[in-house]
Structure formats: structure tokens, C-alpha cells
Request: fold
Amino acid sequence: MVCGRRYSPGEVAYVCSEEGAEGVLDARYDYAAASPAFQADELAGGSADMWRYRALLPLAESDPTPPLAVGMTPLYASPRLAKLAGVAGVLLKDDSRQPTGSFKDRASALAVALAMKAGAKAVTTASTGNAAAALAGMAASVGMPCVIFVPASAPKAKITQLLAFGARVVLVRGSYDQAFDLCLAASERTGWYNRNTAFNPFMTEGKKTVAFEIWEQCGRTVPDVVAVSVGDGCIIGALGKGFRELRAMGLIDRLPRLVGVQAEGSDYMTRAFESGADPLTMGPITASTVADSLSAGLPRDRLKAMLAARESGGVFLRVSDAEILAAIPELAAHSGVFAEPAAAAAWAGLRRAARQGIVRPEETACVLVTGTGLKDVDAAARGCAEAGLAAMEIDPAPAALDASLTTLNRLIR
Ligand SMILES: *Cc1c(COP(=O)(O)O)cnc(C)c1O
Reply:
């Protein structure tokens, strides 16, 4: 992505040997050869998970994959959300239902498959939480040792998930960016298979499967817009790549516009987009947001992210922490889908995009729900409290029930 050098499969493990850790690679395939595998009758016989797209993944037919069911998550049409946003249609792509509760399972499942293929002794990653939980879960499913570097400030639920999956957890008293550098050094010294986002180019490959699913679930077409939250930029980059690959195979003739949603306190991509700065040279910002999964001072996948937004005619925009917290109960109450802050941010971003005319009233937008609300219950509780949502508490007595029914009937009317 940086210098244009090309490598054949297996020639380098992760990054460009000239550019070093910043020399992120982009996998290319023979799209004419892959396109028969994407015809409707071929896909009809495929497995109901992400491996149905193996023709465009870096795995052979015989390579084993983790047994957990990753991908082919539901796509819900939500007329009530559409009305709220003031657009013709809203589709929720519900990746909160992945095995470990987040979108990151798509990448981590492929990482573990590749680690098995490489005969690695262990897998490792740095993460703000979800990528680590996903890697730990996928590793546990095949009995592979896993070492995780996370900031000590990661939510308790995410750290608990790691420990329960049997991962070796290193809490770094510092930022995600610092944990990332330590993890790179550790894998260089040990040979552990490294899943780090934008260092391992194949994480994009696992994540792009969501674009293929949206296309299939929309009846082999694509929505006008896809809204996705952005931290490191790997997911939006992967969405862009997936849709470009569908176009390269002649399966779609236009790309959905990608709306990259950032938290106000972690808005590197939005700043670069608005100012026209080159993300290759623009320096880091200081990142801080309630949406811990979106906190990235120097988005590791900023080149792929910028390409995805620009190529598709999309944008980056920012939403406040207050909007993100409010979006949690709003999304949940109007759809039955409970999202963590980073995932609810995509819904908040769609609302903002519709208000600003970036998404027009006659258009249909897909919102990618990237993680479950159970990942960060404290943040969800704050969102409920700020929306004035509270339970009522009563004594276990008939008179108390009478009084509460009066109130409940008024609320339900
Ligand atoms: C990682 C993550 C994101 C952001 O993805 P990036 O590739 O870092 O931009 C959004 N939502 C959730 C729940 C995540 O875990």
C-alpha cells in the first residue's frame, strides 16, 4: 500500500520487507478464476459461515478452520429505525451474534486457520479488547496457546473473556498503541503467529466477508450506503475491498458509499478526510472516547480506510460520546439488537449523516453492528440513565402492585 512492491504468496510473512512495520500489504487474487465460485448455484451449496467465500480467502480447500460458527450473521430490515433516521430503509447487519460477541471473530478465525497452516506454536495480538477476545476464543476452539497484550484500561468483561478462554494475558500500563509495539517485538522474538491489525494483511481478508454476505443477503445487490464505526480502520478498509472485489468479478456495477463513523475524541480519519492530509505522513492525535473499541491515536489501517471511503464516494464523520451513549438504548429499543458503544456509534453516525443530507430520504443504508452490548455493561447503563430509563422498585404486596399497575398502564398506553 505504501511503495507498490509486489510479493508472491509466502515470500514475506506479514509486511513489506523494505518498508518494515508500516509497509502494510494488500492481498490480490485472480478474480476471473474466482468468479464462478460466486455464482448463485455454487454459493447455494456452500457452508452457512464465512468459509463459503474460500475462493477469495488465503486458504486451500483442505486447510482446516476453527469449528466455531463465524459469519453469515443475520441482516434485519428495520422500518422503525428507517422512520427514525428519515430514510427509505435501514438494514442491521448483526455481528453482535458472532461466537465471542464481536465482528473481530471474522479476522481471528482466519488468523487461527493461518497459524495452524503455518504450524505456529502460539498466536498473539495486541488489542483494545474485542480482537483479543476473538483470537482467544478461536484459539481455545482448536487448543492453540494464545498470548494477548491489552491496555490495562480495557473493560473488565473483555479481560474476563480472555482469562476464561485460557489466554495468557499481559495488561500493559499504557495505550493500545504501546501494547501493539510490545506485541510486535514479542512475536519477532518468539515466532508466535501475529494477528495484529494492519500488520497481518490477512485480517482484511477475514473481515471483507461481511461485504459478500451483505451482497448475498440483499439478493445479490448492494445498499446505497453502509455505515460502519472506525477505530484502526481495518473494518471499513475490508468492506471497501470486499465490494471492490465483487465489482472486479462483474457481480455489482456500483459500490455502496461507505460512511465511516468516528468518536469525536478519536477522529484521526475524519480530520485527514476533511483537511485532505495524507494519512501516510499525518502524525498521531491523542485519542479518548467512551467507545473503547474506537480509540486509536494513529489508526493502523489508515491507508486502506481512506482508500475505501474515497473510492466509494463516502465520507468520514464524527459523533459525540453523548450521541454514542444515547444510541445504545435507542437502537436496542427500536430493533431488539443490543450494541456496545463502538457498535451503537454506527447507528448514531447514520442518524447524523441523514440529518446532514449525506444519506438522502429515498436511500437505503446498512448499519454494521460490530459488537454486543454485554461487552461493556457500564457504558450501556450510563446510556440508559442519561435517557431517563429506570426500573421501578416495589414491595411484594397487593397494594404496591395496584399502584404500580396504574403507572405501568399509563406508560404502555
Ligand atoms: C474493532 C472494532 C471497531 C472498529 O474497527 P476498526 O477496524 O478498528 O476500525 C468497531 N466496533 C467494534 C465493536 C470493534 O471491536
Observations:
- The mean pLDDT is 95.
